[in-house]
Amino acid sequence: MERTLVVFKPDAVQRGIVGEILSRFEKVGLKIVAVKMLSPDSAHFYHHYETIGKMVSRRGKDTFDITVEAMGEGPVIAIVLEGIEAVSLVRKMVGTTEPKAASPGTIRGDYSHISFAFANSEGLAVPNIVHASGDVEEAKEEIAHWFKDNELFEYTATHEKFTQAKRRKP
To answer: What is the CATH number of the domain that holds 70?
Structure first.
Protein backbone atom coordinates (compact mmCIF):
# COMPACT_ATOMS: atom_id res chain seq x y z
CA MET A 1 0.00 0.00 0.00
CA GLU A 2 1.32 3.45 -0.89
CA ARG A 3 1.65 6.37 1.52
CA THR A 4 1.85 10.08 0.86
CA LEU A 5 2.29 13.27 2.86
CA VAL A 6 -0.20 16.12 2.87
CA VAL A 7 0.56 19.33 4.77
CA PHE A 8 -2.32 21.70 5.40
CA LYS A 9 -0.69 25.10 5.09
CA PRO A 10 -1.36 28.04 7.44
CA ASP A 11 -3.98 29.47 5.03
CA ALA A 12 -6.06 26.26 5.28
CA VAL A 13 -5.68 26.06 9.07
CA GLN A 14 -6.52 29.74 9.60
CA ARG A 15 -9.54 29.58 7.28
CA GLY A 16 -10.93 26.59 9.20
CA ILE A 17 -11.28 24.32 6.16
CA VAL A 18 -8.98 21.46 7.16
CA GLY A 19 -11.79 19.11 8.22
CA GLU A 20 -13.79 19.75 5.09
CA ILE A 21 -10.80 19.01 2.86
CA LEU A 22 -9.63 16.04 4.92
CA SER A 23 -13.07 14.47 4.54
CA ARG A 24 -12.59 14.53 0.75
CA PHE A 25 -9.52 12.32 1.12
CA GLU A 26 -11.37 9.97 3.45
CA LYS A 27 -14.45 9.78 1.21
CA VAL A 28 -12.36 8.57 -1.72
CA GLY A 29 -11.02 5.77 0.47
CA LEU A 30 -7.67 7.04 1.69
CA LYS A 31 -6.83 6.05 5.25
CA ILE A 32 -5.21 8.41 7.76
CA VAL A 33 -2.17 6.70 9.29
CA ALA A 34 -0.60 9.74 10.98
CA VAL A 35 -1.59 13.30 11.85
CA LYS A 36 -0.18 16.17 13.92
CA MET A 37 -0.31 19.94 14.25
CA LEU A 38 2.99 21.75 14.58
CA SER A 39 4.90 24.98 13.94
CA PRO A 40 8.14 23.89 12.27
CA ASP A 41 11.18 26.15 12.29
CA SER A 42 13.00 27.45 9.21
CA ALA A 43 15.49 24.55 9.27
CA HIS A 44 12.63 22.05 9.05
CA PHE A 45 11.10 23.88 6.08
CA TYR A 46 14.53 24.23 4.45
CA HIS A 47 14.98 20.47 4.56
CA HIS A 48 11.44 19.91 3.25
CA TYR A 49 11.45 22.46 0.42
CA GLU A 50 15.11 22.42 -0.64
CA THR A 51 16.90 19.27 0.51
CA ILE A 52 13.98 17.06 -0.55
CA GLY A 53 11.99 19.27 -2.97
CA LYS A 54 14.83 21.22 -4.64
CA MET A 55 12.71 24.39 -4.72
CA VAL A 56 15.62 26.82 -5.10
CA SER A 57 16.88 25.09 -8.22
CA ARG A 58 13.36 24.70 -9.65
CA ARG A 59 11.81 28.06 -8.76
CA GLY A 60 14.56 30.31 -7.41
CA LYS A 61 15.70 31.64 -4.03
CA ASP A 62 13.08 34.41 -3.86
CA THR A 63 10.21 31.93 -4.23
CA PHE A 64 11.81 29.68 -1.64
CA ASP A 65 12.23 32.54 0.87
CA ILE A 66 8.64 33.75 0.39
CA THR A 67 7.30 30.20 0.75
CA VAL A 68 9.22 29.51 3.97
CA GLU A 69 8.07 32.86 5.39
CA ALA A 70 4.42 32.07 4.54
CA MET A 71 4.66 28.60 6.06
CA GLY A 72 5.79 30.23 9.31
CA GLU A 73 2.66 32.41 9.55
CA GLY A 74 0.86 29.85 11.69
CA PRO A 75 0.68 26.20 12.54
CA VAL A 76 0.39 23.51 9.89
CA ILE A 77 -1.24 20.09 10.04
CA ALA A 78 0.78 17.22 8.61
CA ILE A 79 -1.01 14.03 7.61
CA VAL A 80 0.07 10.72 6.12
CA LEU A 81 -2.55 9.09 3.93
CA GLU A 82 -2.47 5.49 2.73
CA GLY A 83 -4.17 3.80 -0.19
CA ILE A 84 -3.79 2.35 -3.64
CA GLU A 85 -1.67 4.75 -5.72
CA ALA A 86 -2.11 7.31 -2.94
CA VAL A 87 0.51 9.77 -4.25
CA SER A 88 -1.02 10.21 -7.72
CA LEU A 89 -4.57 10.13 -6.35
CA VAL A 90 -3.85 12.93 -3.89
CA ARG A 91 -2.04 14.98 -6.56
CA LYS A 92 -5.07 14.63 -8.84
CA MET A 93 -7.45 15.65 -6.05
CA VAL A 94 -5.30 18.62 -5.00
CA GLY A 95 -4.92 20.06 -8.51
CA THR A 96 -2.14 22.04 -10.07
CA THR A 97 0.12 24.18 -7.85
CA GLU A 98 -1.18 27.46 -9.27
CA PRO A 99 -4.69 27.91 -7.87
CA LYS A 100 -5.89 30.00 -10.83
CA ALA A 101 -5.03 27.13 -13.19
CA ALA A 102 -6.45 24.38 -10.96
CA SER A 103 -9.55 22.70 -12.33
CA PRO A 104 -12.92 23.08 -10.60
CA GLY A 105 -13.52 20.06 -8.40
CA THR A 106 -9.92 19.95 -7.22
CA ILE A 107 -9.04 21.20 -3.76
CA ARG A 108 -7.07 24.17 -5.06
CA GLY A 109 -9.66 24.84 -7.75
CA ASP A 110 -12.45 24.91 -5.17
CA TYR A 111 -10.74 26.73 -2.28
CA SER A 112 -8.24 29.15 -3.82
CA HIS A 113 -7.85 31.25 -6.95
CA ILE A 114 -4.72 33.45 -6.89
CA SER A 115 -2.34 33.32 -9.85
CA PHE A 116 1.45 33.16 -9.77
CA ALA A 117 1.53 36.51 -11.61
CA PHE A 118 -0.56 38.25 -8.94
CA ALA A 119 1.41 36.72 -6.08
CA ASN A 120 4.70 37.66 -7.73
CA SER A 121 3.55 41.25 -8.34
CA GLU A 122 2.66 41.57 -4.64
CA GLY A 123 5.71 39.71 -3.33
CA LEU A 124 3.47 37.05 -1.77
CA ALA A 125 3.47 33.30 -1.53
CA VAL A 126 0.57 31.70 -3.36
CA PRO A 127 -1.98 30.59 -0.75
CA ASN A 128 -2.70 27.19 -2.26
CA ILE A 129 -4.07 25.35 0.78
CA VAL A 130 -1.96 22.18 0.89
CA HIS A 131 1.35 20.60 0.06
CA ALA A 132 1.18 17.12 -1.47
CA SER A 133 4.13 14.84 -2.20
CA GLY A 134 5.15 14.94 -5.86
CA ASP A 135 6.07 11.30 -6.38
CA VAL A 136 6.52 8.06 -4.45
CA GLU A 137 10.20 8.60 -3.59
CA GLU A 138 9.55 12.17 -2.45
CA ALA A 139 6.65 10.92 -0.32
CA LYS A 140 8.93 8.43 1.46
CA GLU A 141 11.53 11.13 2.19
CA GLU A 142 8.93 13.66 3.32
CA ILE A 143 7.12 11.21 5.60
CA ALA A 144 10.45 10.28 7.24
CA HIS A 145 11.18 13.99 7.69
CA TRP A 146 7.83 14.88 9.27
CA PHE A 147 7.07 11.70 11.25
CA LYS A 148 8.95 9.21 13.40
CA ASP A 149 8.25 5.54 12.71
CA ASN A 150 6.30 5.20 15.96
CA GLU A 151 3.93 7.98 14.84
CA LEU A 152 2.74 5.95 11.83
CA PHE A 153 -0.11 3.56 12.61
CA GLU A 154 -1.16 0.24 11.14
CA TYR A 155 -4.83 -0.70 11.45
CA THR A 156 -7.67 -2.04 9.36
CA ALA A 157 -10.47 0.28 8.34
CA THR A 158 -13.88 -1.22 7.63
CA HIS A 159 -13.96 0.30 4.15
CA GLU A 160 -10.75 -1.39 2.95
CA LYS A 161 -12.67 -4.23 1.29
CA PHE A 162 -14.08 -1.66 -1.11
CA THR A 163 -11.34 0.97 -1.32
CA GLN A 164 -8.26 -1.25 -1.26
CA ALA A 165 -9.67 -4.32 -2.99
CA LYS A 166 -9.13 -6.47 0.09
CA ARG A 167 -11.09 -9.67 0.49
CA ARG A 168 -12.81 -10.57 3.70
CA LYS A 169 -11.43 -13.64 5.37
CA PRO A 170 -14.02 -16.45 5.52
So the answer is: 3.30.70.141
- Whether 163 shows a pLDDT value over 90: the answer reads no
Task: List Cα–Cα distances, 38 to 17, 68, 108, 146, in angstroms.
Answer: 17, 15, 22, 10
pTM: 0.91
Total number of domains constituting the chain: 1
Q: Which residues are catalytic?
A: 131
Please choose, from the candidates 77, 75, 71, the residue with its C-alpha nearest in 3D space to the C-alpha of residue 125: 71
Cα(126)–Cα(23) distance, rounded to whole angstroms? Answer: 23
- Tens digits of residue pLDDT in 29-48: 999 999 999 999 989 998 99
Q: Check residue 154 and give left, alpha or beta (phi > 0: left; psi -120 to 50: alpha).
A: beta
Q: Please check whether residue 74 lies inside any domain of the structure.
A: yes
* Domain span holding position 125: 2-160
- Give the list of residues 6+ apart from residue 40 with CB closer than 8 angstroms, or none: 48, 71, 76
